[in-house]
Amino acid sequence: MATPRVIAVDLGGTKLLTGVLDEEGVIVQRTVRPTALGSEEELLAQVDSAIEELRAEEVGAIGVGIPSTIDQQRGCAVSSVNIPLAGLDFRDHLKKRFGLPAAIENDANAAALAEHRFGAGRGTRHMVMLTLGTGIGGGLILDGELYRGAQGAAGELGHITLDLDGPPCQGTCPGLGHLEALASGTATDHMAAKVAAERPEGDLGRALAAGETVDARLAVDLAAEGPGDARDLLERVGFVLGTGIASLVNVFNPELVVIGGGFARAGNLLLDPARKVVAERALLPARELVRIVPALLGPEAGLVGAGLVGFEAMSAASV
User: Fold this and answer.
1) Domain edges within the chain
2) 3: how many CB neighbours lie within 10 A of its CB?
3) Are 311 and 6 in contact (CB under 8 A)?
4) Could you give the residue ranges of the DSSP H alpha helices within 164-210?
5) In the CATH hierarchy, which fold is given to the domain comprising 5-112+299-318?
6) Do the domains 122-295 and 5-112+299-318 match in fold?
7) What is the pLDDT of residues 168-220, one digit of tens each?
8) Is 79 helix (H, G, I), strand (E, B) or coil?
9) Residue 297: CB atoms within 10 Å
10) Beta bridge partners of 145
11) What are φ and ψ of residue 25, in 5° steps?
């Protein structure tokens, strides 16, 4: 009998990644295409086509990671960031369309599962993950298991409030002063542009005058070159990030905080100031135990995590 495998789907606002995974988290086949964002119908048709392309006899389930709040009781994508999915019974759609066990999961939760099983969090029992990108996603591993909450919507760690009178959060979130609004890649885009306009003599300002796009990516590149406005900006963002992490450390007492996502490419330019704040502001004894480390699986974390929830669906179906 062929070794069981699953089809994994990592559905993002820019790319749709699909793959076939084995039980060791090895991606044995993969496809990538730009995400179809025209409508929910168009997006579903694209996902269905990508899954159909990878169907094979040994595939026993489907797992999908999406940038959405999830109601696991109904298998529903309640609301989404950057993709046209809302109020969709996605799990039932997959089961009916393909006749296989299926599972859906928030993309940051999926990444946390992958990092815990195969990445930076391997061997830990209590782990927090933050994914820094357009927004800030989160995932919680508590006592060795992914914590999903009462309905499956837990882990929205980017939506902890740091400033009661802070800037509005993104998308459909009604909050103000959330971690996501203050320390995400998008927030850093806005701050970098503001600094460039206010300080034309600085490295960001000179880049703006030269016609470059001033955003978080440029800030990371310039900060890596040496001291200047870009490095100062990342230190401030790292301070805010650390303030949020200190709260999470106080609440969950994790062994490890794993930082992933595209903006995490800033590495220690963000993490060193964050570590400093946590060492100063988190409570004893939790602050002495916790380590803050970069994720190891990179852009594959979401796909591997989607595969893991696919294996969960396969296991549940066999009981």
Assistant:
1) 5-112+299-318, 122-295
2) 10
3) yes
4) 179-183, 185-198, 203-209
5) Nucleotidyltransferase; domain 5 (3.30.420)
6) yes
7) 998 778 999 999 999 999 999 999 999 999 999 999 999 999 999 999 999 99
8) strand
9) 20
10) 142
11) 80, 15
Token representation of residue 180: 């996501």
By C-alpha distance, which of 21, 19, 50 is closest to 34? Answer: 50
Cβ atoms < 10 Å from Cβ of 281 = 15
**Rounded CA separation 251/247 (Å):** 6
The domain made up of 122-295 has a fold known as Nucleotidyltransferase; domain 5 (3.30.420)
Residue 284 φ/ψ, nearest 5 degrees: -75, 145
With residue 60 as reference, give the H or E element that holds it: strand 59-66
CA dist 82 and 91 (Å) reads 20
Kindly report whether the peptide bond that precedes residue 285 is cis, defined as omega within 30 degrees of 0: yes
Question: Which pLDDT does position 234 carry in this prediction?
Answer: 98
- One-letter amino acid identity for 248? L
What is the phi/psi pair of residue 33, to 5°? -155, 155
CA separation for the pair 310, 297 (Å, rounded): 18
Rounded-to-integer distance, Cα 214 and Cα 223, Å: 13
